[in-house]
Amino acid sequence: MLGKMDQYIVEMLNITKRFPGVVANDNVTLRIKQGEIFALLGENGAGKSTLMSLLFGLYEPDAGEIIVKGKKVHLSSAKDASKLGIGMVHQHFKLVPDYTIAENIILGDEPKRKLLGLIPYVDIKKANKEIEELSKFYKLEVDPTKLIKDVNVSVQQRVEILKMLYREADILIFDEPTAILTPQEIERLLETMRELRAKGKTIILITHKLEEIKKVADRCAILFQGKLVGVYDVATTSTQKMANLMVGREVVFAQKKEKDNFGEKVLEVKDLSVLNADKFEVVKNVSFSIRGGEIFAIAGVAGNGQVEIADAIAGLIKINKGKVFLKGKDITDYPIRDRLLEGISYIPEDRQKTGVILDFPLYFNLAIKNYFQKPFSEKGVLNQTVIKQFAQKLISKYDIRCGQAEMTLLRSMSGGNQQKAIVAREIEQNSALLIFVQPTRGLDIGAIENIHRRILEEREKGKAILLISLELDEIMKLADTIGVIYNGELLKIAPAKDFTINEVGQFMMGVKGA
Amino acid sequence: MNKDVRQQKIDVRYAIAELLSNEKTSKIATPILSILLTLITTAILLLILGSNPITAILGFLRAGGFIPKPSYASNNNMFTDFLLFLGIMAPMLFASLGFIISHKAGLFNIGISGEMLISGFIATLLVGYSDLGPWLAKPLVLLIGMVVGGIVGAITGFLKYKFNIHEVITSIMFNYIINYVTGFFINSYYTNPFTRSSMPASAASRLTITGLKLNGINISIPLSIFIAIAVAFLVNFLLERTVVGLEIKATGLNQDCARYAGINVSKNIIKAMTLSGVLAGLAGVSYYLGYYNTIVPKKLPDIGYDSIAVSILGNSSPLGAIFASALVTIFQNGSTYVSSSTGIAKEVASLITGLLLLFSACNTYIKYRAGKYVREYLDLKNAAVVKTQAASEGGQNINGFGVH
Amino acid sequence: MDLVFIDGLSFALILLIMAVAAIYSEKSGVVNLAIEGLQGFGAFIGALTAILITHYTNDSSSSWIMYVALLAAMVGGMVYSMLHAVLCVKFQSNQVISGVVINILSVALTGFLTSVINQAITGQASNKFMVGVSPRFDVPYLKDIPVIGALFKSMYPFEIIILVIVFIAWYVLYKTSFGMHLRACGENPHAVDAAGGNVNKTRFIAVMVSGALSGLGGMCVAYSISAQFSPTIYMGYGYLAIAAMIFGNWRIIPTTLACFFFGFARSGGYKLCLVLGLSSNVSELLMMLPYVLTLLLLVFFSKNTHAPAAGGQPFDKGRR
C-alpha cells in the first residue's frame, strides 16, 4: 500500500541453493520493503542472479522460505511468480525478433476471442490498443506494431519492462539493465525507475555499478561468494566501502599508467566502409591510426559498427571500400591467416563462440594460431610434444587455472580462465597490433584487474592496441586516444585527457559537436 | 549392517556411471552398453515371436565363420565362411570410415550408397569389362573408385559451400539420381538376361581372389580387407596427428573459431566431403568388384546406410569402426543363413542394425546423465564429509569477509 | 492433358501434407529429416489395419476401410514420431542424426514386421501389404470449367481431406495462441520460457503433429501411387517435401506453390514420355526428374532462405 514504507513486500528467509560443485546462495536472508528501490550488489558468481531467479520461479530453493505480500509461497515457474505480481527484466532479452512489440508483450497471456463463438483466435487489435494505452501511462512510449528486430536496444528494453507491467507486476526485478545503454539512456532508465516507484511499484535492481546504486537505490544488499555481507542504507554508505565489501578486500580504483611513449604508426585505416549481411553500410568512411605503445579505444553503444571495424581489420568481414595498412603494408585484400602472420592478435567479443573450441583440450586451443608452423608441425604432421610444452609454458606464465593442466577441455574451465587462455595465446604471438573486443565482459573484478594489467604491459612493450569496449570506465581508465562511434561513423577522435565522460556519452548518442 | 549393503549397491551404480561418463573410458563403455541394449531388445522381440534368440545369435556367428556350422556344402568349411565374411566386412569398413571423416567436419554424408554405386559401375565399365591383367586391373579399380567417389563428394561439398544447400538433402538427391541413371544404363546396355543384373566383371579386376583351394577347401582371398584395415589406421593417423586432420576437426567443432584462427572453412568442407567420397568409392569397388562381381540395377547398397550405424556405434573413431563394422557385418551377412535355418524373417538383421543405431544415438545423453549422477554422488559424499567434520569441530564459521 | 493435372494434383497434395508436417516440427525448433521414415511407418500401420480388417471381416468394400486406414496411419505416424521427439527434445541428441536414425529404423522395422505378420496371417513371408487403389470421384459443376476443370475430375477423397487439414494447420499456426507459441519456440525459446510457456512440451506436440500428418501422406501414397505397402514406399518423397519446405521458406502458402510445381513437373514428365513414345527404360530414367529439379531449385533458392533461428538447437534452460 502506498505510504506504508515499513511493510515488507518480499521476504527471502534463510535461502540456500546449491548447484553441482557450488553453493550459489548460502543461508541468505533479505527483507524488501514495499515501494522502495532495493539494490543487490555483488561480483559475478556472488549469487545475486541466482537469488532473484529463485524469486522469479526459475529455480526452487534447497532450503528456506519465500514470503510474498505476507503469505508464504512456493514458486515453481515463471507463471507462478507472474501471478503473484513479480516480473523480471532479464539481462539477455527474451524477445522474438520477427514478432511485433505487441506480440512479444502478450506472448503467454494473449487476449483471445472466438469466431462465431467457437473458433479461437488471438485478438491482435485489442492487444495493440491496450499496449498503446499502457505505454502512455508509464511514459514508456513504443509503437506496438513495429517488429523487434527493427527497433534499437533501449526500445527493446522498454518492451521488456512493458511485458511486466502488462501483467500488472508490483515487484519489478532488473538484472544488470544498464550494460547495453548509453549514459543518456541510463539516465532515462533511472528516471523510469523513479517514475515506477512513484506509482507504487517495488524495484529490485541487480547490478555491479556503484554509481547507479548511489543515484537511485534506497537500500542495498551486498552478496559475497554466496553469503550475505549485509544490508546498507545507500545514502549513508560510500562507494568505496561498498566496493570493498563486494570484493572482500581493499579495491584499487585507478591503475597506474606509465607515461606516453608513442612510436611509429603501426595501424592505419583509411576511409573504411563495411557492409553487413543485408547490404547495409554499418561502417561509413572511418579513418584513424594507431602508433606503437598507444591504446586507441572506440567508445560507442553496442551495434554501431565498432565490432565490424575490428573484424574488418582482422579479416573476418569483407571490406567494401577503403584500405587497411599494417606497418606500412596494404593488407586490405589479405586472407585472414596472412594478416595474423603480418602481426595482428585478436581477442574476440564472444570468447566461447569465436575465441576457443570448447571441445578441444587446452593445448590445442593455445596452439590454434601456430600449429601449421615449425616447430609445432613438420611436413603436415603435428609435433604433440612441442605443442604441449608450449601450452605448459603459457599455463604457468599466465596463471591459467585448469583441472588437468594442458589436457583440460576448454568446456570445463571457468569464463575467466578461458579468457586468460585466449589473452595468453594472443599476447604470445608477439604481434605489433593487438585488438581487444570487450575483453572483460562477464568477468569478476579480480579477472578484470588481471586483463587490464596485461593490456597496460603490452602498451609498455610498444604494441599498438585497439580497444573496443562498452564499459566507459574501462575506456577512460586505459585509453590514450578515444574515438567515439555512432551509426558507423567516428564522430570524434581525440586524446583521452581531452574528453569528459559526459562528452563521450553525447557523441555516443550522435550529438555532433566540437 | 544394512547401511553397508546399501553403500555397496550405490557404489556399483556409481562405478557404472563413472565408466560411462569418464572421458577416457566412455568411448568403449557407451558402445558396449548400446550393444547390450540392442541384444536384449532383440532377444525379447524374438521370444515374443516364439523364436529362440540364442539359436539366432549362434546362427549369425556360424554364418560369419566364427563357430562351425553343423554341416557344410562340399569343400567348404568354417574358414571359407570367415574369408567370405572378411570380404563383405571390407566395404562396410570403408563406408563407415567415409562417414566418420565427413562427421568429423560436422557434415553428414548420407550419399555413400550413391557414391558406392557409381564408382562400382564406372570401374566395372572401364576395367571390369576389359581384358587387363590382374596386376594392372586391380590397382586401376582402386584408383577409379577413389576418383569417382571423390568427385561426387567434392560436388556435394561444393554445393554446400557455394549455395548453402544442406549436404543431407544433396546426398540423398544424388543417391536417387545415381540409382536411376546407373539402372538405366545397366538395363539398356549391360544386362545379363538371366540374372537381371549386370554382366559379371572380369576375375582379374576383382579385389577378391576366388576359386582357390587350400588343402582341398574352397577359399577366397579378400584383398580389400587388408587395404581397409590399413586405411583405417591411416585415417586415424590423419585425424589425430596431422595438420589436415586438426583443421577438419576444428571446422566440425566450431566453424567460427576455425575461421578466426585463419583456417579456410570452405576448403575444409570440400576436403572432408571429397575424402569421404574417396572412401565411399573404395567401398563401392570392394563391394561390386570384390565380394560381388555384378551390380543389381536400381538397388542402392544398404551398406551406405548401415555405415552410419557403424560410425555412431564406434563413437566416430576410425579404429573403433573396425570392430563396429565387424559386428554389424556379422548380422547383415548372416541374415540369409539364420532365416533359412531358424525361420526367423531375414529382415531381422536390418532390425538389429536399426536398433544399434537407435541406442548409439543416445550415447551422448547416456554419458551426460551418467556424468550428472557421478557429480551429484560426489557432492553428496563431500557434503556428508563436511557435515561430520563440522560436527566434530563444533560450531560454524561466521558469514562475512576477512576469513580466507 | 487432363491426366497431367489429375496426377499432378494428387502427387502435389501428398507432398504438401508431408511438407506441412515438416513445417510444424521445424517451426517449433526441431529439425525433422525423419519425414521419410514417418510416412513409411504411418503407411505400414494404415495398411496393416486395412489388411487386418479385410481379413477378419471378409469385407472387401474398401470405402470405410480406407478411411479407417487413413486414421490409423495418422495415429501410427504420431506414435512413431514420439521416438524422434524423445531423442531430440528429452535426450537433446543431434537432430539430424535422430532424423536419419528414424528413417533407417523405419525401413528395418516395417520390413521385419511386414514379413512376420504376413507369415502369421497368410503363411507366406511377403514384404507387401496389398491395399488396392482408392476410388475416385468428380466434383460436380467445378469439373466442367474449361482447362482447370481437370483439377476437379477424378479426385481421390483423401485430396479433400488433405486440403481441409492443411487449411486448419495454417489457421492454427498463424491465428491461434498455440501457433504463436509454437513459432516463437523456433525463433527464441527463451522468450516463451520466460512468458511461462513450456517449450519442450510445445516442441513435443509439434513433432507428434508432424508424425500424424506424415503418416497420412504415406498412406495416401499407398492408396494412389503404389497400391500397396512395401519397401517401395520409401521413394524419397519425404525428402522432396523437405525441399519444398525450404523453397517455401518455411511458410505454408509458398510451400504449397512449390509442391504444385513438383507435382505437375512429375506428371508432365510422364506425359512427355508417353507422347514421345520412349521405351520403358527411359521412362524409368525420367523418374529422376523430381530429384534433379530439387537440386537445381535448391541451387538457385537456398541462399536467401530464412530457417527458424532456433532450429537444431535443443532448448537449454541454463543458458541465459
Oligomer: heterotrimer
Low-confidence stretches of chain B: 395-404
Q: Which architecture name of the largest domain in chain A does CATH use?
A: 3-Layer(aba) Sandwich
CATH topology name of the domain at 79-359 in chain B, in short, is: ABC transporter involved in vitamin B12 uptake, BtuC
Largest interface chains and counts:
B-C, 44 and 43 residues
Provide the CATH top-level class of the largest domain in chain A: Alpha Beta
**Termini distance of chain A?**
50 Å
What profile does the largest beta sheet of chain B have? 2 strands, antiparallel
Structural class of chain A: alpha/beta
Share of residues in helices of chain B: over 70%
CATH third-level topology of the largest domain in chain A: Rossmann fold
- The N- to C-terminal Cα distance of chain B equals 40 Å
Number of domains of chain A: 3
Helix- and strand-based class of chain B?
Answer: mainly alpha
Spatially, the strands of the biggest sheet of chain A line up as 6-9-10-3-11-12
Number of helices of chain B: 15
Overall pLDDT of chain B = 86
SS element count, helices of chain A:
17
Helical amount among residues of chain A, as a percent range? 25-40%
Strand content of chain A: 25-35%
CATH architecture tag of the domain at 79-359 in chain B:
Orthogonal Bundle
How would you describe the overall organization of this protein?
- The complex is a heterotrimer of chains A (514), B (404) and C (320).
- By secondary structure, chain A is of the alpha/beta class.
- Chain A is built from 17 helices and 24 strands.
- The longest helix of chain A has 16 residues, at 183-198.
- With 404 residues, chain B is mainly α.
- Chain B has helices at 2-21, 26-48, 53-63, 78-104, 112-128, 134-163, 167-190, 223-241, 243-253, 255-260, 265-291, 303-313, 318-342, 348-361, 363-393; strands spanning 208-214, 217-222.
- In chain B, a hairpin with a 2-residue loop joins strand 1 (208-214) and strand 2.
- The longest helix of chain B has 31 residues, at 363-393.
- The model of chain B is unreliable at 395-404 (pLDDT under 50).
- In chain C, helix 1 (2-27) crosses helix 9 (237-247) and helix 3 packs antiparallel against helix 4 (95-122).
- Chain C starts with a helix and ends in a 19-residue tail after the last helix.
- The model of chain C has no long low-confidence stretch (mean pLDDT 86).
- Chain B binds chain C through residues 49, 108, 110, 159, 163-165, 168-170, 172-177, 179-181, 183-184, 187-188, 298, 305, 308-309, 312, 345-348, 350-351, 353-355, 357-358, 361-362, 364-365, 368, and chain C through 33, 83, 87, 91-94, 96-98, 100-101, 104-105, 107-109, 111-112, 115-116, 119, 125, 127, 236, 239, 242-243, 246, 281-282, 284-285, 287-288, 291-292, 294-295, 298-299, 302-303.
